[in-house]
Amino acid sequence: MLQQKVKTMKLFLTIPLLAAIILVFHCALMAEERKNDSPSPKARAPVKLTEEALRIHREALVIDGHNDLPWQLREKKDLSFRKIDLRQVQKALGLHTDIPRLRQGGVGAQFWSAYVPADTGKKGTAVRLTLEQIDVIRRMVAAYPDTFEMAYTAEDIVRIHNKGKIASLIGVEGGHSIDNSLGVLRMFYVLGVRYMTLTHSETLDWADSATDEPRHHGLTAFGEQVVREMNRLGMLVDISHVSAETMRHALRVTSAPLIASHSSAYALAEHPRNVPDDVLRLVKKNGGVVMVNFYPGFIVPEAARLRRDMFQIARDLQKKYPDEREFRAALEQWRKEHPIPTGSVHTVVDHIEHIIKTAGIDHVGLGSDFDGINSVPNQLEDVSCYPYITQELLNRGYGKEDIRKVLGGNLLRVLRQAEEVAKAHQKG
């Protein structure tokens, strides 16, 4: 079975081979089932996996920049892992992520998101809840020691991957989680946090969000301090969710390469969450990496138009329905009444390719947002489906080394460079 303990590296390397046939039928069947879902643009032929693509994928170190499974565990009220066994496939619970499918997808390293809603900052509960989410991640890793191991450096990722395990890292999604405190930021680093998204859906006292009213033209003086302190620590600065002005401001301030952990290209889908071309070119100069988000509302042009104001709509509904259950029901009803086209793996690779053409092959990666999104593209329904990206890149003429960069090599390089900047700060 795929969940059988990995005894040796040789056995680990056979797992994708054993899973390949399952993967082909799994993602193809899911794509077929969703043909009559919400409206979609003109369809392109489904991607068909080849042995060459599977071989390239097996040999690569696949790193995903953003997965919200820890929040799903809170949502499903199972922070102690008593109901949800990740060793079993959890599609019935609506999850995108579990151990068998991570293995099928060939995931070698995963940034798990320690996310809490932006309004917790106003309620004064953000720090406590973020600490609880960090605790959930660390306990999840400890609960499945045959599969996961905590990673804190680039070399940890390589070492853990070579042991046949999935290197697990932590990203905090939103600067509201530090409650305007550099001390909290430093403590998060000690606990294993290796990136922080500067904002989430709402503008902070020190940084403008992409999906709220701007107040600072980017970062305040304290926001600049946050970026510099992250550089000093070796924590990656994440510009997903921030306004374009904040992206540019962070790029001016940072002394280390930064990331967008789960963002796509604005030129292809005009959602404010996406990265404009001028910023992509600045990311190239900075040496950073933009990790493409899979959410249809950020990658399909028409879906991006329909979801452009989704964060404001959610805020309005929350004001109208202060009861949490009523708010969730109202938000779900709104989504049902406003379906969006889902796109496909082709659409995701369109964004990857645009970033390659604009910023270069060294500056793009994968940031799925699985288990943080309520809609997925065809043939990218869950964490088992990453090989389809490899196949489509191969179909478009990309060679093995370039594909390896996209799948994880670029992120690994950025993390190494951020560590070197931190060492230089410490020596200084």
Keywords:
428 residues; six-stranded parallel beta sheet; 18 helices; alpha/beta; TIM Barrel; three-stranded parallel beta sheet
Topology:
Elements: H1 9-33, H2 51-59, E1 62-67, H3 69-75, H4 99-104, E2 107-114, H5 119-123, H6 126-143, E3 148-150, H7 154-162, E4 166-173, H8 182-190, E5 193-197, H9 221-233, E6 236-238, H10 244-253, E7 259-260, H11 277-286, E8 289-292, H12 296-299, H13 301-306, H14 310-320, H15 324-337, H16 345-359, E9 364-366, H17 387-395, H18 400-427
Parallel strand pairs: 1-2, 2-4, 3-4, 4-5, 5-6, 7-8, 8-9
Helix pairs in contact: 2-17, 3-6, 8-9, 10-11, 14-15, 16-17
How is this structure best described in words?
Helices cover 49% and strands 10% of the residues. The strands form 2 sheets. Strands 1, 2, 3, 4, 5 and 6 form a 6-stranded parallel sheet that branches. A 3-stranded parallel sheet has the order 7-8-9. It has one domain: TIM Barrel. 53% of the residues are buried. It contains 18 helices and 9 strands.
The N- to C-terminal Cα distance equals: 52 Å
Number of domains: 1
Which oligomeric state applies? single chain
> What is the radius of gyration computed over CA atoms, rounded to a whole number of angstroms?
20 Å
The biggest sheet, with number of strands, parallel, antiparallel or mixed sense and barrel status, is: 6 strands, parallel
* CATH superfamily grouping: Metal-dependent hydrolases
Q: Give helix and strand order, one letter per element, not per position.
A: HHEHHEHHEHEHEHEHEHEHHHHHEHH
Rough shape? globular
Helical residues, percent: 40-55%
> What name does CATH use for the topology?
TIM Barrel
Q: What is the number of E strands?
A: 9
Low-confidence stretches: 1-21, 32-41
The helix-and-strand class reads alpha/beta
